[in-house]
Amino acid sequence: AGRRADADAYRRRASRMMLRSLVGDRRGVTATEFALVAPAFLAFMFLIIDGARMAWSFQALQEVATNTARCAALGATGCTSSADVKSYAVARAAANGVKIDAAAVTLTSAATCSSVSGMTKVAISASYQGASTKLLPSSLTTLATESCFPTAPSS
């Protein structure tokens, strides 16, 4: 029984010493903290990047709507019919890196915009597929914008 008591005492002392050395040991703390923080940090960064992509896409659509409304209102070359205006918008969007189809473009001649009549109005509604809209529940899957330009008098 004496040997067993000595062995138990030795194990207790050894485990206390090991516990003390582990409590005081700081090796690996940085790696552990990084493993805990990195996933949340990276997710946050990717959401910021995806949000910036969405804002850029919306701004590009706004620019396309503004230039398309101006082209249609002035009756510029290549913007004389509704089909021409829609083709112009699709080409302009493609040049800006945004893919839309002609069905996403709506042209309204003789529209009233902000209580001003005699305007040419172009509305664009395009779907947006970003990483965050696939991973998280989001209502921001469609980007819609419109722009008006005064219609030039017929000559």
Q: Helix and strand layout, with pairings?
A:
Elements: H1 2-24, H2 29-74, H3 82-95, E1 105-113, E2 116-127, H4 131-135, E3 142-150
Antiparallel strand pairs: 1-2, 2-3
Walk me through the structure.
The model has no long low-confidence stretch (mean pLDDT 86). The chain contains 4 helices and 3 strands. It is rod-shaped. It is 57% helix and 19% strand. Strands 1-2-3 form a 3-stranded antiparallel beta sheet, covered by helices on one side. α2 (29-74) runs antiparallel to α3 (82-95). A hairpin with a 2-residue loop joins β1 and β2. With 155 residues, it is an alpha+beta fold.
| Major sheet description | 3 strands, antiparallel
- Rough shape? rod-shaped
The overall pLDDT average reads 86
Structural class: alpha+beta
Low-confidence stretches: none
Number of strands: 3
Give the percentage of residues in beta strands: 15-25%
Count of helical segments?
4
User: Taking Cα atoms only, what radius of gyration do you get, to the nearest Å?
Assistant: 32 Å
